[in-house]
Design a protein that fits this description.
The complex is a heterodimer of chains A (175) and B (125).
Chain A lengths: L3 E3 L22 E8 L2 E8 L1 H4 L6 H9 L17 H14 L6 H4 L3 E4 L5 E7 L2 E7 L5 E6 L7 E7 L1 H13 L1
Antiparallel strand pairs in A: 1-2, 2-3, 4-5, 5-6, 6-7, 7-8
Helix pairs in contact in A: 2-3, 3-5
Chain B lengths: L9 E6 L16 E2 L2 E2 L2 E6 L5 H6 L7 E6 L1 H5 L3 E4 L8 E5 L4 H9 L2 E4 L11
Antiparallel strand pairs in B: 1-4, 1-5, 2-3, 4-7, 5-8, 6-7
């Protein structure tokens, strides 16, 4: 018998889904009625909203945007504030990564840092491996993989497009 | 007169809040100047200065400091030379063709001696 979706969940349905997300489970589940040998039972099943659940990247966006308001010489070595172009590129990457089907913990950058020429860098981690996206002051994107356990620890890709950077990031986060 | 720098000599590098990651470790951004791997990284030769003096050379309060042994850049095809300045006898430089990968190695081998203000572990947490 096919499951029947219900618009109102029953009060006694207590099965819960576990996933590292920061939104209410209630938004992400539908209820279905199964009948078996004359006994009906309700189960929760993930719906499209569950699949599309997003991590809260807003604090990261705010941090990245704040780099544009740094003082001159913020790094004590003559650093300049991050340019609008670099911030915009970073925000585009964050928008792109927000749709990656990984856990919220993985999708959130491990670290963000401004760079002295008006650029910035974002870093993601997967275990011991790291992916660093360096954004120049004109918005140019460079990527560094750091895989400490691999025969070739470092791999660099310079001057790549936003789409390429996002593809590398998606692969890194989901493999 | 420039001093010879031994492999075991300690080098101090000033750090700011964003050079420190959430685990309290130094990030590769600490060794990038003008957004790119710095080919002339300014450091202080530890035996000719102090942590306080190195931090006091920052134009504003709140900086921290990290320590790197001279052997580490040398193992990564970078040279380390004493380059005294009129107002900073301890000034030295890590020179050579730096890369993003080398910046990560230098960062991971840098010990934080004094956390910058506002960094994840500056309050001892």
């Amino acid at each position: 018998m096919s499951p029947i979706a219900l618009s109102t969940p029953p009060a006694f349905a207590t099965v819960s889904w576990t996933r590292d997300v920061q939104r209410s489970q209630e938004d992400c589940e539908d209820y279905a009625l199964f009948g078996l040998s004359g006994i009906a039972s309700y189960v929760r099943v993930p719906n499209r909203r569950f699949v599309a659940v997003l991590p809260d990247l807003q604090p990261v966006r705010e941090t990245v945007t704040s780099f544009h308001h740094l003082d001159d010489n913020w790094d004590t070595y003559g650093g300049r504030p991050t340019t609008k172009l670099a911030v915009q590129a970073a925000l585009s990457i964050l928008d792109g990564v927000s749709h990656v089907p990984a856990t919220a913990t993985e999708v959130l950058p491990f670290h963000t840092a401004p760079l002295g020429n008006g650029g910035l860098q974002l870093e993601w981690r997967q275990g011991r491996d790291a992916l660093e996206i360096e954004i120049g002051n004109t918005g140019v994107l460079n990527v560094l993989f750091d895989r400490p356990g691999a025969p070739q620890r470092f791999e660099e890709r310079d001057a790549i497009s936003l789409e390429e950077a996002l593809q590398l990031l998606r692969t890194f986060l989901t493999v | 007169m420039p001093d010879a720098i031994d492999d075991a000599d300690e080098l101090y590098r000033r750090l700011v809040r964003t050079n420190i990651d959430r685990e309290g470790r130094v990030n590769s951004s600490a060794y990038k100047l003008n957004g790119y791997p710095d080919n002339n990284i300014s450091v202080n030769l530890a035996r000719l200065t102090s942590i306080d003096e190195t931090i006091a050379q920052a134009p504003k309060p709140g900086a921290g400091a990290g320590s790197l042994v001279a052997r580490i850049p040398r193992e990564n095809e970078l040279s380390v030379v004493h380059d005294p300045l009129p107002k900073n006898e301890a000034h030295s430089e890590i020179r050579g063709t730096n890369t993003k990968a080398k910046c990560r190695i230098l960062a991971e081998r840098t010990s934080v001696l004094r956390m910058p203000d506002g960094s994840p572990s500056s309050d001892g947490s």
